[in-house]
Amino acid sequence: MSRKARLAKTALSVTAIAAQICAFCAPATAIPRYPWHSETAVTATLADRIQPPSAFQRIPVEPGSFAAWLRGLPVKPPQSLVRLYDGRPKWNQQLHVAVIEIDTGIQDLQQCADAVMRLRAEYLLASGRTRDIGFNDSKGKPQPFKGDPKDYAGFRRYMDKVFSFAGSYSLEHEMRPVLPSEMQIGDVFIKGGFPGHAVLIVDLALNPANGEKRFLLLQSYMPAQDMHILKNPKMPDGSPWYPVPGEKEQLVTPEWTFPPGALRRFKN
Fold it and tell me: Is residue 30 situated within a structural domain?
């Protein structure tokens, strides 16, 4: 066989392998990026709505990563109210700069840690990683998702069950601690308890001149309510960007103060 023929045969083999890989991955890509949201709806994303502070730039992230997915979260129009699960407006509308376009449900279930688990599970579902979807109950027993990944209604029923058996206490124990200096998009400040609280880091920006980082926080709260991006209560201009705290510093948010050592990361 000539060298040209061997190269052609090799090219055909590579093409065949690539086709097999694409065929294997096809079911995963069939799931919308944000399954609860109409892809045809004209909407802004989190990254569109909130720009980095002056002199800061968003850190680069891998396409398809949890970080990139969080930056692309759809947001409601400017000046949208944060509403409770029953439609009533939250009592304080001065704490947020944006409201995420995602359902809360009609029961008082999707609270703080639940919102974090919902977004993590939604990302895994949209990425075709359904085998990684699972959360521990309050006794530490894993409760994996076993449904059909194409049955979104079934997935939402599973998540409602998660909200009933899991919370900040269980979630804190199944995540691993990280130092603030190692912070990544997708990490969580969490204080497990009854009640406890959790907020999700949904963006990071860097000042290339001095290496300083700032981050954005998303939360739900009690009772169950729209997910929203928090203002930094220490910023008089209402900025939502937070400086990275030191290892022995508290993190003060509008409705909760997290002690040092509260930063955690998902293990999968």
Answer: no
